[in-house]
TrEMBL record:
Keyword Membrane carried by entry: yes
Transmembrane helix in keyword set: yes
Native organism taxonomy: Bacteria, Pseudomonadati, Pseudomonadota, Betaproteobacteria, Burkholderiales
Transmembrane residue ranges: 6-39
Keywords: Membrane, Transmembrane, Transmembrane helix
Protein name as catalogued: Glycerate kinase
Amino acid sequence: MNPWIGIGLALLALFLGGALLGVYGVIFAVTGIVFWLLLQMSRLMRLMRVAGAAPMGSVVNAVMLSSKLHAGMKLVDLIKLTGSLGVKAGEETFVWRDAGGDAVEVVLRKGKLAEWRLVRADGAPATP
C-alpha cells in the first residue's frame, strides 16, 4: 500500500474521531493507529525470524526465483520470496544460490529491486 494512503487514512481517522466524539474519538483513533503499526511490526519481525533461521544466501531454486522477480520489487517482498537473507557481494548487490550451484545476483537501490541476473553453474548462458 502506498504510504501516503496510510497517512491520509490516519489523519482522516483523527479528524473524524475528534469531530464526532471529541477527545474520546481522538483517543480511539490513536489506539487504532498504534494497533495497525504494531501489526505491521509483528509481520516484519516474523519475516525476519524465518529468514534469519535459514542458511544465508540460500534459495530452493535460483531459476524459479529469477522468473518471479520484477523491477521495483521491495526488499521485504524479495526476502519473503527467497525465505533467507542474501549474501552481500557488493555495495548494492546480493546473491542467492541453490543446491545445484545456480545463483541469482540482485542489485537493490533504495530498498527496491533495480536489476538481477541469473548465473548458471554449468556456464550455459542464462535467458531472462
